[in-house]
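Hey, resending since the last one bounced:
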Amino acid sequence: MEAAAPHIALLLPLKSPIFGKAADAVQQGFLAAASIEKNGLPVRIYGFNNESTEVADLYQQALRAGAVAVAGPLTRNGVTTLAANPNISVPTLALNMLDSQRFDNLYFFGLPSETEARQCAQRATAAGLLSATIVSTNTPLSKRLAQAFADDWQRAGGILTSEIVYAGDPAPLKELPLEPGNAVFLAAEADKARLLRPYIDATLPVYATSQIFVGNTRTLTNYDLTDVRFVDMPWMLQPDHPAVMIYPRSAAPLSPDLDRLYALGIDSYRLLKVIFDRSETSSLPLDGVTGKITLAGHIFQREAVLAIIKQGLGVPVDGKSRQ
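The structure tokens again:
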């Protein structure tokens, strides 16, 4: 056992058969960010099997070992358990979101897909679009995306014409209203989105979350999604972005989902440093690899990049043309 010494503790479900791969990707990104920090504190890894049952003990173990800042846990259940602890005594960044009002040392940062759905609604509103049809696939994730988009769209005064739940019959997609001002929100994962897109008239603006984007190495897959507007992070879209270029990529290629978690790890290290240094005023908004990051209360909020699929590639949209 290592002697007690000041360090950053990283609490992740590395031993979990379900979440282990995701946790490993976050760990890689976190350590990649730490590796280029001059004179940074050492990082110690604390691995879980079940965050819900182990987080309280491991958090205290980290503090006894000298942890002066903590990142983790990763799962929503683990974060819920940690948030119930009334004694968060050092700066702590949970790597998932809770809608929790805090006044202590616990902060939240994550990559909820619902946030991207809301940003799609905001982008469509900013583009002057007036009415939208939601196309969903009835999976739990699709339902959450559809609800998040609908809430934000209607809150901004947008008209929700209908929701089409795709169950194999494309006919309703061919009958979407084509009048100017109409839009479509595709609440679907990449495999289903590829099936749906060809049936939607090319003149309709179509918006989606990063769920539809499998990276710029999969051009044939992307061709099926031509002209779909989506939001994603600079890490996936802008390899020449100044904030992206300085961090090493994973030694072994990662799937798009795991690569985004690697990016979460990078920005988590940077944000934990912000709250540890109490430099929120000078360091925020942060030009992160996951997006532009601001702080509202104790929740770090991420603004993703708007992109469009052209010629098999996801291409960031010029800020002047927000549609």
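The chain has two domains: 7-108+242-303, 113-233+304-316.

Sorry for the duplicate.
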